[in-house]
Amino acid sequence: MTPVGTPPSPPTEPLSPPADPLLSVRDLTMTFPGRRSRSAPVRAVDSVSFDVAAGETLGLVGESGCGKSTTGRMIVRLLEPTGGSVTYDGRDISHLAQRELRPLRREIQMVFQDPHSSLNPRQTVARIISDPLLVQGSAAVDARRRAVELMELVGLIPEHIDRYPHEFSGGQAQRIGIARSLATSPRLVVADEPVSALDVSVQAQIVNLMERLQRELGLAYLFIAHDLSVVKRVCDRVAVMYLGRIVEIGPKERVYTAPAHPYTRALLSAVPLPDPVAERGRERITLLGDPPSPAAPPPGCTFHPRCAKAQEICRSEAPTLSVATPGEPRQVACHFPEAA
Ligand SMILES: Nc1ncnc2c1ncn2[C@@H]1O[C@H](COP(=O)(O)OP(=O)(O)OP(=O)(O)O)[C@@H](O)[C@H]1O
Ligand code: SF4
Ligand SMILES: [Mg+2]
Questions:
Q1: Structural domain boundaries of the chain?
Q2: pTM of the model
Q3: ABC transporter domain: from which residue to which, for each copy (predicted)?
């Protein structure tokens, strides 16, 4: 069944995937039923494919509502995909039952955007951090000892272990969320806008912490954010999403210095440059209108109503994600990608 206006994207095969990836996502799709009985289904994520290698950070960026969180939630299996697959360490986990998922929950963890609302206000930090271990069957005394270690690791004062979340600032609360995510020694952390709710000065501290933990523990991150400057700092590769699909994916250096998709160019042109002279002289690309609803996506290239480069073919034919410049590990979904 094809429940929404455009046909599903053709399957895509990422070019030069990391050898032996830790995570492989292929044609991942999530179609939600309409919120009201007669409203159209919402294809929030549409045939998304990418890999993440052990120890690597893939950034996932795009405007609000483009499907970033839904993608992350399918990878940690808070949501079951309606199409495609999630393969972790060589095993297809897309449709595992809750019982089968339990050992996997040690390996794949999630950090959420709003630290305070993601922590139970009625639980102490000791309980919050040790909860994933207790769920996995650890003894209470061992779990508490590990919680102390984790508090030290993320820069919290272990003596505060019996305090409640409201006694901590936003940055400290996010450190608690990160400590909780590390309790079971995961190899992959899906961080969904981990710094978006924090003050700018605190954002840098949390980003530094995440980078240090990655170096020390060899973590792989799927780092979701709408702030392109934060993603530029942390990621090795970046994927740009628009209306449920990846429109450009590749090494950070290529995507940031020579964006090939008109949407990536527009997003990047809105990021302020540190050099005031460069900032004054730069070209700004204004996106026309708001993103369309994923319940009624435009035909052809779903970006065409907002694209200054759109031509006749863009209104009828969806571009496939493919190599823009022969030989380079970057893919773009556009009939007329910008020459590198
Ligand atoms: N449970 C649900 N039922 C119906 N629609 C949903 C549901 N969850 C998300 N959606 C819709 O799916 C689309 C993608 O949502 P998602 O939260 O993944 O976007 P996002 O890129 O994370 O946005 P933001 O930057 O605002 O966090 C949106 O149109 C949203 O309204
Ligand atoms: S396919 Fe056409 S409408 Fe879509 S981004 Fe490329 S030029 Fe713009
Ligand atoms: Mg989100």
A1: 23-107+186-332, 116-185
A2: 0.91
A3: 23-268
Report the nearest-CA residue for atom 22 of ligand 1. 69
First to last CA, the chain: 39
Strands 188-192 and 220-225: parallel
Q: Which CATH class is domain 23-107+186-332?
A: alpha beta
Run means of pLDDT, 10 residues per run, the chain, 340 residues: 45 55 97 83 96 97 95 97 97 95 93 90 96 91 95 94 95 94 94 91 91 94 93 95 97 94 92 74 77 91 95 97 88 90
Q: What's the 166 CA to ligand 1 centre distance in angstroms?
A: 28
State residue 16's pLDDT score: 52
Token reading at 166: 């409201």
Ligand 1 pocket at CB < 6 A: 32, 35, 42, 44, 62, 64-70, 226, 294
Nearest-CA residue for ligand 2 atom 6 is 334
Nearest Cα to Cα of residue 322 among 24, 13, 8, 84: 13
| Ligand 3 centroid from CA 77, angstroms | 15
Task: Say if CB 331 and CB 19 are below 8 A apart.
Answer: no
Structure tokens at 84: 């495609």
| SS3 assignment, position 300 | coil
d(CA 276, ligand 1 centre) in Å: 36
DSSP string, 46-92: EEEEEEE-TT-EEEEE-STTSSHHHHHHHHTTSS--SEEEEEETTEE
Residue 2: predicted pLDDT: 39
